[in-house]
Records
---
Amino acid sequence: MADDSVFAAVPSQQSMPFNASSDLHLGDADIAETKINIYRNESMKVYRFEGDWMCKASKFKRLNSSFNKDRERLQFRTLPGKHHSVLTQDFVDEVGHPTYDALLEVIEYFGRSLRTGLETA
C-alpha cells in the first residue's frame, strides 16, 4: 500500500512477525508512505477473527495507533470465531455468514477504490 500504483488493499489476519504479535513488520518509512497513499485513497478494510491465535487483538491496537491517530485510514473488522483465514480457508459461502459479508464488503471496496483510483491516475 506504500506504492503509488496501489489504489486498494485489504490486510487480513496479519500474523507477521510470529514472535512479536503486536509488531507490524513495517519500518517507519513504510508506515509514513502508506499513510500518505491511504490519505489519497479510501480507508483500507482490515480483518481478523476475534479468537485468532496468530493475529491477536494487540496487532489491531498497534495498527490503529500507527495509522489512525489523526484520521481514519484503517477500518477494522473483527469477525466472531477462533479461525484465522477470513477470505480463504475459513471462508463460509453462505449468505449472512460473517465471512460471506466480509467478502461482499471487500468486493464493493475494491470496485469503488479501483474505479476511483484509475479515474484520478
Note: The mean pLDDT is 87.
---
Amino acid sequence: MLNEIIVLLEKYSDKEQAEKMSSYMQNKFKFAGIQRPVLKELIKPYLSKSAKEQLNWDFIFDLWNVDYREAQYIALEYLQKHHKQLQPSDINNLKKLITTKSWWETVDTIDAYVGEIVLKDEALKETMLEWAVDENMWLRRTSIDFQQKYKEKTDREILEKVIAANLNSKEFFINKAIGWSLRDYSKTNPDWVRDFVDKYQGGLVPLSIKEATKLL
C-alpha cells in the first residue's frame, strides 16, 4: 500500500500549491501540493481497506519517512482509524512521531493519542512529568497539552506540575500550549484556573495569561 500511496501523491502533485504549502510551514517540509480535503478523499479507499486490520506501526513509520509532508498527514489519518487499538506500550512509538519531523500540525494531533493511553495507564503520568522537563520542546508541549480533552478527568496536580516546569519559557509553542491548556480547563473549572493564574502570574508570560483567561 505504501508504494501505491507514493504514486498517488506524485500523480496529484501540484508544484505551485506545493510551494505555497511549504512556505506556510516556513519551508521546513517538502509538499506534493495536495490540500487536506482533497488528500482525505484520495486516501479514503486505502484507509477503508485497512480499517479492520491491526494497527501497523511499520506502515506508519514508513509513511513518516516519505519526503512529502502529506505522507505524515496520511499516517495520522491511518492512526485515527486505529486509535482505539492504542495501548500504553505504544507510548514510545508516539514519542518517536512527536520528536521526528516535528511541527505543531502533527504534534497537536498526536498529543490527543498520548492523552488516550495515559487514561488507560496512570503510571504514564510519570512519563508526562519526565517529558515536561525534556530537552525536546515538542515533548514538553505534549506534556502540557495531553489532558486537553479530559474535562472532569483532568489531573490538576499533573497539570500544575508540567506548567510550573515550563514557566518563564521563551518558546512561543510552549507559552501558547500553557495558555491553551488552561483555557480548555477553564471550561470545566474556572475557579481553579483563576487561582492558578494568580499564583503563577510572575512566571506566566502575557501570551499564556491572555489565552488562559479568554473564557473567564
Note: The mean pLDDT is 96.
---
Amino acid sequence: MNNFFIYLLTMAGVTYLVRMIPLVLVKKKITNRYIISFLHYIPYAVLTVMTVPGIFYSTSYSVSAIVGFVVAVLFAFMEKTLVIVAAMSCFAVFACEMALNLL
C-alpha cells in the first residue's frame, strides 16, 4: 500500500508540472504563426495516436478492423457527422465479423 501512495504522488506531481511549466515559462501571447499552427494540430495528433492502434486490436479478425477503418475514413472524407462515421464503421465491422464467422 505504501507504493501506491508513492506512485500516486509521482503521477500527481508529473501531471501538475506538465500543466504548470508552460504557464510559468510563456508569459506573453504567442504570435508566431508556425507555433500557433503546431499547437492547433496537437489535439488531433494525440487523439489519432491514441485511437488508431485500438482500432486494429479491438476485433477478432484483422480484416474486419481494416474494413471498419477504411469505411470510417471514407465517410469522414465525405464530411459526414461523427455519429454517422462511427455507426457506419461499427456496422461494417459487425457485418464483416458475421461474414468471417460463416466461413
Note: The mean pLDDT is 92.
---
Amino acid sequence: MLKRDLLELCLLHVLNQGDQYGYELLRLLHGVFPDVQESAIYAILRQLCREGATERYQGETSGGPVRKYYRLTKEGRGRYDALLTTWRETRDAVAALGIQ
C-alpha cells in the first residue's frame, strides 16, 4: 500500500467516526505524518469530494471564518472498507515475513 493510499485510508477513517472540518483533519494527519505537506492532504480531500466519497458543507459561524466540514458518503464508506481490507492484507503479508 502506497503512502498516498495510507493517507486516504486515514482521512476516511477519521471521517467514518464523524464529520470534521478541514483544518482539524489537516492537524490530525499532519501530526501523524509530519513529513507530508499540507497541500498533499488537501489535494486528497478535494479528490475524495470530486469522486463522491466525501461531501463538503459549511458549518455555523461563531464570530470567526466559516468552517468547511467534510462527511463520509455511502460511496466513501465502501471505499473505506475496501482500503481497510487492503491495508489489513498488506499488514498481515509483511508480518508473515517477520517484519514488525
Note: Strands lie at 20-21, 54-58, 68-72.
